[in-house]
Design brief:
alpha/beta, twelve-stranded mixed sheet, two-stranded antiparallel sheet, globular
Length: 342
């Protein structure tokens, strides 16, 4: 399976600074790009024609070039999604985001004051609710990212209820990816199966749009004959490309390292040394990535699954847990189903 001509999307951590200390933080590079390089990278991104750009951190509002970065990308008509913890938002910032068509994503992770402030150390539950209300007032609130692990997977129903109450119309569930104490918090296949059935039920109960950022979610829905929509704001949503997109997009680390996945311990190049277009070409030519993307190298049970080409398993999680790029995804709930072989 070859890498496409353009990055599917670009995910950019524009600062390593953060005002919180979250349980699931993947960790940050110690260095940051200088302002001149930051703006150069912002100008190079549209030339690669990604479908959209995600801006994150750290806390992106602590990057003083933030609005200039967004302006540059916005000029090219590329959708910008910004992930923030919401603690630093005010009406002036929200108004400027509205002018630049920013799709704002404010993370929650906990459904009540105790769990939220335990998972996101330094955060204010009250401030979160104020920021969500303000973003809603200006009609720029996209969804609430919720990172799911053993620390909060029992709260699915409460998370739906809380998100609905404070004004969200969409929830994005993110599977916990490699971070500190990863083996302690990562979900197993049985837990994913239970969570997916809960998400499906609560989506019906609360009539909220739901997106689950896991490559085995769409195959799970198909296996259980559950309706979904593709690229539509209607109920359960899956992207047109639902499989693991390792090597099909670019993650730019705060120090300029460019990786084939946000959570991969693999660096293809650094923007201090090369342009983004050259790094993208290096990524397409990488023998490691070619091997990872060749699904014929995938080991069983993944290799004989009928959904292999729709899923492929999360490569960064698999490597984090097994130290192998070709093993099957240990967290995949389809491993529990007897009839998923070809």
């Amino acid at each position: 399976m070859s890498t496409q001509d353009n990055p599917y999307m670009i995910d950019w951590a524009i600062t390593n600074r953060c005002n919180l200390d979250c349980l699931h933080c993947r960790g940050m590079a110690e260095e940051e790009l200088n302002n001149k390089t930051v703006l150069r990278v912002a100008r190079e991104i549209p030339l690669l024609k990604p479908r959209w750009v995600i801006i994150e951190g750290g806390e992106p509002l602590l990057q003083k070039e933030l609005f200039e970065i967004i302006k540059i990308i916005h000029r090219y008509g590329i959708r910008v999604y910004l992930i923030t913890n919401g603690m630093l938002l005010d009406e002036n910032i929200i108004r400027r985001f509205r002018e630049l068509d920013v799709n704002l994503m404010i993370s929650i992770d906990g459904a009540d004051k105790e769990s939220y402030e335990r998972i996101r150390k330094g955060a204010s539950f009250g401030r979160l609710k104020e920021s969500v209300e303000l973003a809603n007032d200006y009609n720029i609130l996209d969804s609430c990212p919720v990172t799911i692990g053993k620390h909060n997977h029992q709260q699915i129903g409460k998370l739906f209820k809380f998100a609905k109450e404070i004004g969200y119309k969409k929830i994005t569930f993110l599977g916990l990816k490699p971070c500190a104490d990863y083996n302690k918090y990562v979900l197993n296949a049985k837990e994913y199966e239970k969570i997916f059935f809960s998400i499906i039920q609560y989506q019906r109960d609360y009539k909220m749009d739901v997106y689950v950022d896991e490559p085995f979610f769409k195959p799970f829905l198909k296996e259980h004959n559950i309706d979904y929509s593709v690229n539509s704001e209607d109920g359960i949503i899956v992207q047109d490309v639902s499989r693991c997109i390792f090597g099909d997009y670019m993650f730019i680390e705060t120090n300029g390292d460019v990786k084939p996945c946000t959570f991969a311990p693999v660096v293809i190049g650094n923007v201090n040394e090369k342009g983004l277009d050259e790094i993208w070409n290096d990524m397409k030519d990488s023998e490691l990535i070619k091997k990872i993307k060749d699904l014929k190298t995938r080991e069983n049970p993944c290799g004989e699954c009928k959904y292999l080409y729709e899923c492929a398993g999360c490569r960064s999680r698999t490597f984090g847990l097994t130290r192998s790029w070709t093993e099957s995804d240990p967290s995949c709930p389809l491993r529990l189903v007897s009839d998923v072989k070809t």
